[in-house]
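Now for one record.
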Amino acid sequence: MKKLLIGLVVVIAAAFGLFKFIENTEVGGDTYYVQVTTDGKQVTLKDDSGQEYLDYEYQLTGYDDKGKSKELTFRANKERPLRKNAYLKVTYNSKKDGVTQWEEVTEKAVPQKALTQLK
């Protein structure tokens, strides 16, 4: 019984790992860092059922770890603006129509060349 349970846990863990690998491969792209300097543009959108919801769109200059810049446009997917002066790690994929994901990071997590450009 223990061997069956251990085997089942291993199979589930392997399937989860494979799923995460595939997800990251499809969503992957180039990493840029931005600092939120505006409240963003408030936009009203509709979901698949026709229900309206509020979102914020940002156009910010991002910098990679070498300090190279790129103009980035993305939506926050939140009903309130992002925190001003927050640093974001943004994934840009030209094959997937731009920014595919973002996450807030600390200033220490921003590479030095990107941080120099952002300040």
